[in-house]
From TrEMBL:
PANTHER family: DTDP-4-DEHYDRORHAMNOSE REDUCTASE (PTHR10491), METHIONINE ADENOSYLTRANSFERASE 2 SUBUNIT BETA (PTHR10491:SF4). Catalyzes the reduction of dTDP-6-deoxy-L-lyxo-4-hexulose to yield dTDP-L-rhamnose. GO terms for molecular function: dTDP-4-dehydrorhamnose reductase activity. Its EC number is 1.1.1.133. Pathway: Carbohydrate biosynthesis; dTDP-L-rhamnose biosynthesis. Belongs to the dTDP-4-dehydrorhamnose reductase family. GO terms for biological process: dTDP-rhamnose biosynthetic process; O antigen biosynthetic process. The keyword Oxidoreductase applies. This is dTDP-4-dehydrorhamnose reductase. It catalyses: dTDP-beta-L-rhamnose + NADP(+) = dTDP-4-dehydro-beta-L-rhamnose + NADPH + H(+). Coiled coil: none annotated.
């Protein structure tokens, strides 16, 4: 099975490389120098030239606050190029597995969002990802659209690494306590993608459509930070837990507005794959253990980047 993976250097992309590589599929992973999602024609050309049997798109403009300043770039990468990718795949009868976000929702719900819930993004990133969803559905019937949330891993920029870095530097930290969602370990999401590919290989078909995929156990950023600190100490990444202060979103200088509640109902995916999504706690243990065994240059960087890294100060 020849699989074309975009975004192979990102959090999810790296985990996909591991999972799909171990499954023995031939992976094609063109980098940004060859395929730039800010230039949609390069995305279509890659599909036409490489002729894979399946495409996984883990590429995205994920800097939520930065998207407010660069909405056109976010739309090109997360919207227009996804449409071009889907059209190129449809032309060659290739299925597209694509990843989207909980930020397509406005957060006004009080119970978990399901796949058919009304979408109403609050920020430019969410709008650009929604555009990608719509173009994907329009252009390629053979798609699996996985909405996920609060992604973390041992690589790249994410909340876990930011917390460990700040926890090592400070004795006291303020963390937002009024946004609730589901952290998702990139390795668990990559595993799910692998399961879909395996089924496609076995059955020659998939139940196309949208699926929610996040780890179990909703929490606030504050609760997630507590668990990160505990695990950080247990793994020897931190000498002691800093004092955590719970603050509101209003007290934190976000550039982009975030949904207050973005818990995803994953029961459709769980029924389809006959599995239960594990709690994020297991993924957190793995990531902290990986960080504890990492080389110094792999330890948390000092910049807050992807998604929700900037949720504490
Ligand atoms: N991170 C989250 O908390 C979160 C939450 C919900 C949903 N998601 C979704 O989950 C998916 C995976 O996210 P992630 O956290 O793994 O993202 P990530 O770590 O930020 O990685 C993004 C990937 O996209 C590539 N990329 C960005 N702009 C590009 C461009 N113009 N041309 C080519 N490649 C480009 C990056 O390449 P470089 O290495 O060259 O920059 C990187 O490989 C995305 O669809 C994202 O929207 C993420």
């Amino acid at each position: 099975m020849k699989v074309l993976l975009f975004g192979a250097t990102g959090q999810l992309g790296r985990e996909c490389r591991k999972v799909l590589g171990q499954a023995g599929w031939a992976l094609l992973t063109p980098g940004r120098d060859l395929v730039d999602f800010a230039q949609p024609e390069t995305v279509a050309a890659a599909v036409e030239n490489l002729r894979p049997q399946l495409v996984v798109n883990a590429c995205a403009f994920t800097a939520v606050d930065q998207a407010e300043a660069e909405p056109q770039l976010a739309e090109l990468v997360n919207g227009v190029s996804v449409g071009r990718l889907a059209a190129a795949c449809a032309e060659l009868q290739i299925p597209t597995i694509h990843v989207s976000t909980d930020y397509v929702f406005d957060g006004s719900a009080t119970t978990p969002y399901h796949e058919g819930s009304v979408v109403a993004p609050l920020n430019k990133y969410g709008h650009s990802k929604l555009q990608g969803e719509q173009l994907l559905r329009m252009q390629n019937r053979k798609h699996v659209l996985l909405r996920t949330s609060w992604v973390f891993s041992a690589r790249g920029n994410n909340f876990v690494k930011t917390m460990i870095r700040l926890g090592a530097q400070r004795s006291e930290l303020s963390v937002v306590g009024d946004q609730v969602g589901c952290p998702t370990y990139a390795g668990d999401l990559a595993f799910v993608i692998g399961q879909f590919i395996e089924r496609y290989q076995r059955e020659g078909n998939l139940r196309w459509g949208t699926y929610h995929c996040s780890n179990a156990e909703p929490c606030s950023w504050y609760e997630f930070a507590q668990a990160v600190m505990e695990q950080g100490v247990a793994c020897g990444l931190l000498r002691q837990e800093p004092l955590l202060q719970k603050i509101t979103s209003e007290e934190y200088p976000f550039v982009a507005t975030r949904p207050a509640y973005s818990v995803l109902d994953c029961s459709k995916l769980e029924a389809r794959l006959e599995t239960k999504m594990p709690s994020w706690r297991q993924g957190l243990e793995r990531v902290c253990a990986e960080l504890a065994g990492a080389m110094p240059e792999e330890l948390p960087r000092t910049t807050a980047g992807a998604g929700q890294a900037a949720t504490a100060r």
